[in-house]
Amino acid sequence: MDTNKLLSTLNYSDSPCFLRDSHLYVHPGYAHIFRRAMEKCCLRGVYTLRQQSSGNTATASIVPIIYVCEAESEEKAREIHRLVWNQNVAPFVLVSSPKAFRLYSGFKYYAGLDGRSDQAIRNVEKSTSIVKTTNSVLEAFAELKAENIDNGKIWAKFSKELTAEHRIDWSLLENLKKLSAWLLNHHLPRKIAHSLIGRYVYLRYLKDREILSDRKFEQWRIEEGSVFGPNATVEGFYSISERLKQWLNGEVFPLSSQERATVEAKHIQKVASAFRGDDPDSDQMHLDFAAYDFAHIPIETFSIVYQQFLHAEGAGRKSGAYYTPLHLVNFMLDEMDAGHPLRKGMKVFDPACGSGAFLVQSYRRLVERELASKSEGWLQPANLRQLLVEHVYGMEIDEDACGITELSLILTLLDYVRPPDLEAPQHRGFKLPLLRNRNIFHSPEGFFKPIPEWNGAKPKEGFDWIVGNPPWRQLKKGRGRTLEKADKAALDWIAANKTNLPTGLCQVAEAFAWEVTKYLSTQGKVGLLMPAATLIKKTSEHFRCKFFNRMSVWCVVNFANLRHLLFKDAESPAAAFFYSLRSRDECDDGNTIITYSPFAIDQVNCFERAHANKEMWTIIVNSSEVKEVRVEAAATGSRIPWKLAMWGSARDRHLLESLEARFPTLSEFAKEHSLTISEGPQLRQMNSSQEVDPIQVTGKNRLVLKNIRGRGRIFSFPPKALEPIDKSLAYVRRGRGKVTFKICEPPHIIADAARRFAVFSNDFVVVPPRQIGIASAQSETNLLKALSLYLSSDFVRYHQFLTTIFGVERDQPTIDDLKRLPVPLNKMSDADMIRWTKLQEDLARTCEAANSQSLEAFPLERTKKKDAIRPLLNQLNQAVYALLGLNEPERLLVHDLVEVRTKLNEGRVAREAVRPASEMEMGDYAETFKEELDTFLDEARRLQHHITVFFGETDAMIQVLHPKKSSTQPVKVLRMGKNDTSGLAKIRERLLMPHGQWIYFQRNLRVYDSHATYIFKPRHRLYWLKSQALIDADEFLADMLAASDEDV
Which of 613, 831, 865, 1017 is deepest in the core (most CB within 10 A)? Predict the structure, then answer.
């Protein structure tokens, strides 16, 4: 059985998702990687996930899943595994060798094992019987069949192979850390140790890629052993560094003469030996550099090393710099390509280029597109040089980063030269370009005060692409604060432009978003990675208002739910803004901005909850996440359109707007009833650095939040949550005592800033800082009890989640957010007030009974408390719904957001959202969906749709038969067995044929087929909520109306 038969057996041969031959060169983000794999790994093809964005194959985003390679020996099969692991692109590699078919993990390689040890996940020995081998392949590799990749079943078996810790980048960083620790322990300063390691990463790259060839060593009369291995010398190291600096027009991690003096032979020898792959003494450390092949490791590894060292010094966080993962870089460049395809003649600029990831990938795209147009399939070095110096520009404050960017670009150029050492006769006389302050500008005072050379070198006609990840930091200017030069320049710019080009709290990224536009060409486009907080923070409202009025924004991608998956240890989530200058004749009427918010639950690394991990290797966008925001709505500066685009729907917008129109805000309600609302006091000591006033709280209780952590919704405080205040803390800032003291007096409500509880209390309790107190006169005690219930309801959680920074930023909403809450309590009758007061007292007593038990020590008691309080909470929510006048569909919106959707916050893959929907839940969904369709069609419901749900283990198909005449039929929910004889399996197969990978990209796929419509969904509970049925019905009806309009 040969490789062709294997491809046929796995159904790869005829699949449009299997790339082979010339199709491997079509996608510029991967063409160079696939080309090297073809040269060194005998790559026969790549099975991919493929999201077609248009009829142009080149613009389709792809995700490599499986390499299929051939090996002439068993040893070569193991070598292919190592090389593919070094590429860090495909999670699986299937190798055909003379004796066997082997499946390896492309993200896992144990370098410490004997090189002869095979690390295959699955292994099928080839037999002389083709039938026997075919059966073995089908049994061992069943999950690898094309249909099982397309429908996602592959991840049920193999998702555990996607763990981050064994991938090449993390493996390399761990070994670099160990090497750094050895150098530090042997008295080499940290900065110099990092420079030495960085230099050797660079040298190993050059050597493995044959740029630093044997001919170069001979030509320069330098012994290779003096640079690599246990006999390396200080002289050899500095000699090769100087030669390379002259030849390649730059160096990385430079050392001053004083720093050079601290490097000893033992330091050089240890690092040189490690990078050659020698095994160091096991009692000192164990490194696995022999496993690395820098000819296959992406050049972007330079950026990873730079980030590692920069952040180890603390400089990265201080500057707001973060390494941008390669898959995110390619994601953004794909979107830029969709808006304005990159081609020869266009100029690219990164205003904060860091270590050059965006520029390197942009340059690669230009080269690959030129290669595709050449019949000979290669470019002359002079052509490669021209593509670089005439198209790629960057600016950076950090000189080391500039050096890495320049050398990464030079190495990328040499990647396309054969031989790469430029020693061939036809390359004689060719000079590599000098990029410093011609293309890559080191600007010590930053982007807002560029060096003079910039004005002379920048293209007069402007840039066609401006793309990058500017620093995210809020600048502060205050007495005694020393500012870096670049920070001062940025603050000066922000101050000078605060009226026309405002920023939120001096956010540097927002200043970049404005300033880059003055360098755009007439057709130029911008793609910047910004803080997601820009979309929702109150302080950025003025920026949003001006920005969406003055810019033509075509797309915003909110990565808030992927915060920890995109950037390790990131404190703030990201959003990508794609825009251009607005033309004078452009108006807002009817214009929309495409926006989508990818969720962790839809990413490949989270398909199986049991193996969901915190490391992404690709970004998947589900079509149901794609929304539109009206330009005129964005231009108001409101955060609501962006919150609803991520977490809500048009129904949620209508509900929020109608309630805000019908009821006073909490602020207005408080004024009407003489309520005092304030944040709790910050208790201070008398010797505080700020002036203080004493307050009479010594010996009185204060609430200690950490003592009620994990107790959920509460209506009274357990005794241990209250602690007496020591006299040393009986002070507040001068002038702050009067109001804050008042909210601590009974009767009052203590509301959690995170909206988890709002407890009524008749005792004096000092409200903690940032938490909210609401106090009233004694005569309003019952009103305050009713208000505490309302603030504890699901609706308030719903409202605050959709209208504040919840769900995007980790910060808590403000007191002003709470004051904007609509409050319906003025509608209450005396009888209502009596019922609400009794309900509050019942809830408080139930909590007090539970508080007397140790819920931590007795989990059963926690369950009993939930069981006891659940009917009371349901009573509370029903009372609030009635008072607000919510109908059943509106109540579903509230319930499902609070109980299910919010559990996906922070990128969580919550069981309640991903567990398989039960037969009853699918039936409830179908009933709700049917009712919405039937009511729209005929309020008397004489004409009714016939709806049947056919479900399997992982997904389901909904059949909607359109009514032709008056008839009724109940919803049916039927299990589809493996041996289905009804013909439905064939219908399903026929309908899904054009949408093979719907589970990744269209998780609510609708297929129209004559008199019926079919909807395909995963069985995840999230997709079968009743509120989702409402949204699906709206979309279904909108499609029907649009289709009927086209037929007119």
Answer: 1017
DSSP state of 894: H
The confidence band for 855, taking pLDDT boundaries of 50, 70 and 90, is: very low
Domain covering 666-905, topology: Adenine-n6-DNA-methyltransferase TaqI; Chain A, domain 2 (3.90.220)
Cβ count near 672 (within 10 Å): 11
Closest C-alpha to 255, from 269, 247, 245, 246: 245
- Contacts for 158 with CB less than 8 Å, ≥ 6 apart: 91, 92, 121, 143
Closest C-alpha among 863, 865, 1041, 1033 to residue 960: 1033
Of 308 and 85, more confident: 85
Q: pTM score, two decimals?
A: 0.92
Tokens of 280: 């160091």
DSSP 637: T
CB atoms within 10 A of CB 245: 13
Q: Are 528 and 467 in contact (CB under 8 A)?
A: yes
Residue 621 DSSP one-character state: -
Tell me the average pLDDT of the chain: 89
CA–CA dist 947, 928 (Å, integer): 11
Residues in contact with 281: Cβ distance below 8 Å, sequence separation at least 6, in sequence order: none
- What span, in angstroms and rounded, lies between the C-alpha atoms of 723 and 966? 69
Maximal CA-CA distance, the chain = 99
Average pLDDT over residues 717-741: 86
Contact assessment for residue 551 and residue 582, using Cβ atoms and an 8 Å cutoff: yes
Give 525-579 as a DSSP string.
EEEEEEETHHHH-GGGHHHHHHHHHHEEEEEEEE-GGGHHHHSTT-SS-EEEEEE
**Contact, 418 vs 366, CB < 8 A?**
no
CB atoms closer than 10 angstroms to residue 145: 18
User: In 259-321, where do the E strands start and end?
Assistant: none
Determine the Cα–Cα distance for residues 170 and 167; give it in Å rounded to an integer: 6
Torsions phi, psi of 541, nearest 5? Answer: -60, -40
pLDDT at 990: 80
Strands (E), 588-738: 592-596, 626-630, 676-679, 692-694, 701-703, 722-724, 731-733
